[in-house]
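ugh ok fine here u go
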Amino acid sequence: MAQITEEQVERVREIVASVPVGTVTTYGDVAAAAGLSSARIVGWIMRTDSADLPWHRVIAVSGKPAPHLRTTQLENLRAEGVPVFDGRVDMKVARVDLTES
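structure:
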């Protein structure tokens, strides 16, 4: 993976912090908004520096959380009113457009 700068980390953190309650975004959406080349970079940043952020609002484009986060992430999202069916977020309803901010 390419060297990740502090500016990139801070931009990802800023974007994730701005995702409204009751909505979700994807790793790819965050990468695009931050000007990063890969959703994997966002995943790495989130894995290493997101404990104080609404990390649960960032999900795979499929709407399915990672298995190790599934229970906690879906509980947090349901508590915010995000529609979840059969363990998957309804992305057509809950996904926020980051280009509008």
